[in-house]
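User: Reviewer 2 asked us to show a designed sequence for the structure in our supplementary figure. I'm pasting the C-alpha cells here. Could you produce the per-position amino acids so we can include them in the response letter?
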C-alpha cells in the first residue's frame, strides 16, 4: 500500500487493514494460559485423559506426538489432520498419514472438554497439549504450551502429500522444509529427536535395504549388521510389520536416538542426513558427549516453535465442536 501524500489518512487505512486481515501468522495471538479464564481446567482435563490413555495404551505416545507435527506441517497447526472426508480426500487419507493412530484419543479429550466448557477449546490446541503431555508421560521435561489456536475448515489429501517431509529427504530438503515454516536448523535436529519414541512400518525404509541403487544393494550409509537384522524383520514388500525406531526404549523419551545416528543405525535417510550439516552434526555430537545436557529443554522450545506454524487466531477459523468435522 503506497501512500506518498495523505500520510495520516493512509496510516489510518493501514492500521484498519491490519485489524481486518485474519491472523494467519507464525504464533501471533497465541499465549500460555489462553484458557485460564474461559476454561480454567482445560489443561488438567487433557492431562487426566492422557494419563488414563498412557496407562493402558503407552504405544500411542509416538503416534500422538507425530500427529501434532503432521498437523502443523500442512496448512499450519489448525487441526486439519483431524477432519474426515466422505470421499476419502482429507489429509488423514494421504499415504504418509495412513500410519497415524490415536484419533479416538483426541475425540475422548474433546468430549471431556466439551462437557466442561462447551465450544471453547479448539482441536488444534488439543493436539498441541496432547503432544506435550505424551512426551512428558514418557520422560521428557515439561514445557508451557502456547494456546489460542483456532481450527481450519479445509483438509486436503494432496496438500498432505506435497507438504509432509518424506523419509528419503536429504539435508538440503529438510533444512528448506523447516525454514519455509519458520523453523531453524536447530529446530530440525532437536525435533528429529522425537524419533526416540515409537515405531515405523517397514515400508517407510525398505528401499534402503533392498535394491537401493537398482543393483540389489542396500544403502551404504546403513550399518551392514543393522541391515542384516532389519532384513530379517522386513521382507521387500512388507506393508504391515512395525520396527522400533530407537530399539529397546521406544516408550521412553531419551537421547538414545542421537547415539544411534553416528552408529548408522537409524531407519530413515532423513535421520542419517543430520550428519551432513555441520550444525546438526555438532548438536548430535554435543548431546552424545554430554548425556543430552540440553536436549530435554531444547525439545520443549522447538515444540513451541513448531506449534506456532501458520496458526489461525482471533476471529479466523472456528472452534470445532467435533474434531473430525467442521461446525
Ligand atoms: C524431519 C523430518 C521427518 C521425517 C522425514 C519423518 C518421517 C517419519 C516416518 C517415515 C515415520 C514412520 C511412519 C511409519 O511408517 O509408521 C516417522 C515416525 C515418527 N515420527 Fe517422524 N519424521 C520427521 C520428523 C518428525 C518430527 C518433527 C516429529 C515430532 C516432533 C516426529 C515424530 C515421529 C514419531 C513420534 C514417530 C513414531 C510414530 C509411531 O510410533 O507410530 N517426526 N517419522
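Assistant: Here is a per-position design you can include in the supplement:
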Amino acid at each position: 500500500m503506497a501512500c506518498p501524500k495523505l500520510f495520516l489518512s493512509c496510516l489510518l487505512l493501514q492500521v484498519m487493514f491490519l485489524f481486518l486481515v485474519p491472523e494467519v501468522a507464525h504464533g501471533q495471538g497465541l499465549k500460555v494460559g489462553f484458557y485460564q479464564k474461559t476454561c480454567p481446567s482445560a489443561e488438567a482435563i487433557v492431562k487426566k485423559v492422557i494419563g488414563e490413555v498412557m496407562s493402558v495404551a503407552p504405544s500411542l505416545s509416538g503416534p500422538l506426538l507425530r500427529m501434532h507435527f503432521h498437523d502443523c506441517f500442512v496448512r499450519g497447526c489448525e487441526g486439519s489432520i483431524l477432519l474426515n472426508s466422505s470421499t476419502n480426500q482429507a489429509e488423514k487419507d494421504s499415504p504418509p498419514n495412513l500410519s497415524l493412530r490415536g484419533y479416538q484419543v483426541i475425540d475422548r479429550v474433546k468430549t471431556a472438554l466439551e462437557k466442561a466448557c462447551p465450544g471453547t477449546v479448539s482441536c488444534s490446541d488439543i493436539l498441541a497439549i496432547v503432544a506435550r503431555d505424551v512426551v512428558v508421560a514418557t520422560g521428557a521435561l515439561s514445557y508451557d504450551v502456547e494456546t489460542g489456536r483456532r481450527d481450519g475448515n479445509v483438509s486436503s489429501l494432496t496438500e498432505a502429500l506435497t507438504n509432509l517431509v518424506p523419509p528419503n529427504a536429504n539435508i538440503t530438503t529438510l533444512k528448506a522444509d523447516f525454514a519455509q515454516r519458520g523453523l531453524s536448523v536447530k529446530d530440525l535436529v532437536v525435533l528429529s529427536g522425537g524419533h526416540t519414541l515409537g515405531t515405523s512400518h517397514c515400508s517407510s525404509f525398505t528401499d534402503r535395504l533392498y535394491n537401493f541403487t537398482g543393483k540389489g544393494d542396500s544403502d551404504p550409509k546403513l550399518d551392514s549388521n543393522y541391515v542384516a537384522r532389519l532384513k530379517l524383520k522386513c521382507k521387500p514388500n512388507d506393508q504391515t510389520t512395525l520396527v522400533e525406531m530407537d530399539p529397546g526404549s521406544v516408550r521412553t523419551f531419551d537421547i538414545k536416538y542421537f547415539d544411534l545416528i553416528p552408529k548408522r543405525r537409524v531407519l530413515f535417510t532423513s535421520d542419517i542426513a543430520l550428519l551432513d550439516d555441520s550444525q546438526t552434526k555438532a548438536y548430535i555430537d554435543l548431546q552424545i558427549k554430554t548425556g543430552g545436557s540440553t536436549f530435554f529443554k531444547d525439545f520443549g522450545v522447538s515444540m513451541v516453535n513448531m506449534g506456532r506454524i501458520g496458526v489461525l487466531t482471533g476471529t479466523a477459523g472456528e472452534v470445532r465442536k467435533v474434531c473430525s468435522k467442521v461446525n
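For the response letter, you might also mention the following. Residues 42-56 form the longest helix (15 residues). The chain has 13 helices and six strands.
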